[in-house]
Amino acid sequence: MQHAPPRLELPRVGVVITCHNYRAYVEDAIRSVLAQTYQRWTCVIVDDASTDGSTEHIRQLLRAIGDPRLSLLVRSQNGGQLAAFRDGFAASDAPFLAFLDADDIWLPNFLVAHLSAHLNATRPAALSSSDVYLVDRDRTVLGGTYPMLRKPRSRTDAPGTATTPGKQLGEMASEIAYASEYPITYFGPEAYGWMWAPTSSMVFRRGALEPVLAFPFKSRIGTDYLAATCAHLAAGSLILSECLGLYRLHGASVSAGATYAGGHVQQSPNYRAHEITMGKDVLDYVLADAERLGAINGRHFVPGFLSNHVKKFGDLGNDPRLLPFLDRRSRWRRWRKRLTRAVRGSFGRA
Q1: Is the per-residue pLDDT at 177 higher than 80?
Q2: Fewer beta carbons within 10 angstroms: which end of the chain, N or C?
Q3: Do 185 and 163 touch, CB atoms closer than 8 A?
Q4: CA–CA separation, 222 vs 254, rounded Å?
Q5: 13-259 in CATH: which number?
Q6: Angle at which helices 269-288 and 223-235 pack, to 10 degrees?
Q7: Is 238 in contact with 189 (CB distance < 8 Å)?
Q8: Does the record's keyword annotation contain DNA-binding (predicted)?
């Protein structure tokens, strides 16, 4: 006698749409959430003190749509994307969180593909990121992939592990049954550097993101860099090679205000000038959380991360808080470098 498998309750996803002066685009973002094939979501639109009529436009849209899963949270003062992230996070108790910039769009299988990847039978991860099409303000396609996404291309990225969604789970819960022909790659916490597509491509586990958003970062922009880099340290990342959204490149975008020329997405001058502040924020987070991260990943993990981080952000290398995490050889090398600089400075002044 065959018995039916037990009915499983699938996880809810808290969707957060962050909006600041994106009246022209926000309806597209909202309707792309409504069009999701995975329907276990609630969505809060956080309007970050817009001055272009976005707030009233969103109110009218929500009244016309009439879906109780949609809500609006209006900030009285502009706090930047990080503040909007925090408010949206606090408005949901869902075990997974997805953030959608109001000028971007999800394709209908975005949520089911990410949830299917997260609930794979190989290994869990702190966050996932999928590929995106690059489009302009009018949705004209400019690129078929996000170049900095660390997905399989011409060569295998050695630290990555191939991962497949759990077929057994799909048999027990049909809503999560999603078969993608595109590779999914897992990168462990030891994999360093940007490996994701931007904010609207990401889905986070609540437990991995909670300590990150609670940290007093100084940056107001670059929230996807801070959130992904720091959450990744808890349990690694899943990279979905499938394009599951549209990422708009236009003049109002903070991180990509330049014309797309192929290759890397060009960062605006303001964003590039802010990179060292973000690097310092990540350093502060890792040093403050070193004990927990070491307990999760082993005693060599934090020194290894800090070594890579200082190589990327060289100006951070003189922070005295790094010394306890350096081996004897690295300490001697750092002391010698400081001495050399001091001697050269003395001769220069002479």
Answers
A1: no
A2: N
A3: yes
A4: 9
A5: 3.90.550.10
A6: 30
A7: no
A8: no
Residue 235 CB coordination number (10 Å): 20
What is the value of pTM for the model shown? Answer: 0.87
What DSSP character marks residue 184?
E
**What six digits make up the tokens of 74?**
């209006």
Query: What token pair was written down for 221?
Result: 């922009």
Query: How many Cα atoms occupy the beta-carbon half-sphere of 321 within 13 Å?
Result: 13
Phi-psi region of 159 (alpha: psi -120 to 50; beta: other; left: phi over 0): alpha
Q: Which region among 214-228, 235-249, 251-265 has the lowest average model confidence (pLDDT)? A: 251-265
Give the gyration radius of the chain's Cα atoms: 22
Rounded to an integer, what distance in angstroms lies between the CA atom of residue 334 and that of residue 304? 16
The span from the CA of 14 to the CA of 346, in Å, is 58
Place of tokens 């022909």: 181
Do residues 183 and 151 lie in contact, with contact meaning Cβ atoms separated by under 8 Å? yes
Q: How far is CA 83 from the centre of its chain?
A: 15
Tokens of 343: 């001697």
Cα separation of the two ends of the chain: 93
Please give the structure tokens belonging to residue 259. Answer: 């014309």
Domain boundaries, the chain: 13-259
Identify the residue whose tokens are 């300490």: 331
For residue 279, the SS3 value is: helix
Higher pLDDT, 238 or 328: 238
Q: Which residue has the tokens 């959204």?
A: 245
What residues pair up with 73 in beta bridges, in sequence order? 46
In the numeric block, the tokens 């990410």 are attached to: 114
User: Which one-letter DSSP state was computed for residue 266?
Assistant: P
d(CA 251, CA 182) in angstroms, rounded, equals 32
Rounded to 5 degrees, φ, ψ at 198 are: -70, -175
pLDDT value of residue 344: 58
pLDDT for 69-112, tens place per residue? 999 999 999 999 999 999 999 999 999 999 999 999 999 999 99
Query: Is residue 175 a contact partner of residue 40, using CB atoms and an 8 Å limit?
Result: yes
For tokens 């997905």, name the residue: 151
